[in-house]
């Protein structure tokens, strides 16, 4: 009897599963993803740029420490930015190598065939294949005068004089996006010049050791002279 009652119960209705998304729904989802990606990409790029600038600032601060030590041990005189008579990256007397040798730091890579300076002398903003062998930060040749370097006493206001800045090389058919020197008398001209590659500003190390971003593109001739030329010139 019980079996008969059970058998006579109506069957439960089948629950039909939801089918695939319609074309319109897929298009809406794709559009939302595209909008979110478009919003996220600039933010991501800004974060990467900020990270690179922070690393470059740290590198430049380390360079400042080496520069201070060098000046103290060399009659209070800055190293020359671009001295005559240099031969190779391992034994020449351009300013970065003088600092490296004074600190007793080894080169990276093969000293005979492919020597590179310590990592601090390079700017992460500049791609590896476009970095100049001698570094990405340029010594101001108007202040770090060749061939002997300028005495610090000649700088009446060290806190206003740029000795090192992010720089680029426009010579050799634009082979490099960086330079180890630039001429303060023509900061934004010539084959090697200060480079505003850090969000539109040049990252600068001053003679007193502090670091500052300078918007050199908006400076007039008086301001450029104030920051990039010795007071006596």
Could you give a short description of this structure?
The chain has 233 residues and is of the alpha+beta class.
Secondary structural class: alpha+beta
Taking the sheet with the most strands, its summary is:
6 strands, mixed
Instruction: Give the ordered list of helices and strands.
Output: HHHEEEEEEEEH
Whole-angstrom Rg: 30 Å
* Helical residue percent band: 25-40%
Strand content: 5-15%
Provide the low-confidence segments as ranges: 1-6
Q: Please tell me the total number of domains.
A: 1
Question: What does this protein structure show overall?
Answer:
There is one protein chain. The model is unreliable at 1-6 (pLDDT under 50). This protein has one domain (24-228). With 233 residues, it is an alpha+beta fold. The chain has helices at residues 2-8, 23-73, 95-103, 221-228, and strands at residues 108-110, 114-116, 137-140, 162-169, 181-182, 192-194, 202-206, 211-214. The protein contains 4 helices and 8 strands. The protein starts with a helix and ends in a 5-residue tail after the last helix. Helix content is 32%, strand content 14%.
